[in-house]
Amino acid sequence: MVWISSDVHALAAAVRVVRYTVHQVVDLADLLIQAVPDVNGRVRLEAIVAASWIGKEKGLPIVIHCREAFREIVDILNEERDSDLRGIFHCFGGSLEEANEVIDLGFYLGIGGVLTYKKSGLDEVLKNVALEHLVLETDSPYLTPVPHRGKRNESAYLRIVAERLAEIKQV
Description:
By secondary structure, this protein is an alpha/beta fold. It contains 7 helices and 4 strands; from the N terminus they run αααβαβαβαβα. The protein has helices spanning 8-21, 28-34, 41-58, 70-80, 96-104, 122-126, 158-169, and strands spanning 62-65, 87-90, 107-111, 134-136. The protein has a 4-stranded parallel β-sheet. Helix 4 (70-80) links the parallel strand 1 (62-65) and strand 2 (87-90). Helix 1 packs parallel to helix 3 and helix 2 crosses helix 3 (41-58). The chain is globular and about 40 Å long.
């Protein structure tokens, strides 16, 4: 187990450990956040920076689950931005303006079961976003689409999300 504090030097040490132990990265940002016992805002943002470094170094996309820190994360990604930085904003649920900022960064919008929720507003946002900027995803076992909401999510339900998106996009 790696224990680190919230200072940059300790985080850099953890990055070195992760850099040599991760071969296939699905969600590096979450991996780094979980590796930090003190998960205050500063550390989480430092973890995003570290994830971007490793993603660029290894040529891998990073996956960011952003809740209540959109501006801070986008600002960091703008600072780290180059042609090698890419990834997905997992479980995207933001506004059209936020969607456009994510797309301008070269990231995809991860769309899952929330699209089927009546009050999510995501349907209106996605009417104005081209399909090539979207990635359909589950958040298994969470965020199960309607009509299975309240049950354990599974990959088989992705068809429901795809059907809802096709309905919204009229394709």
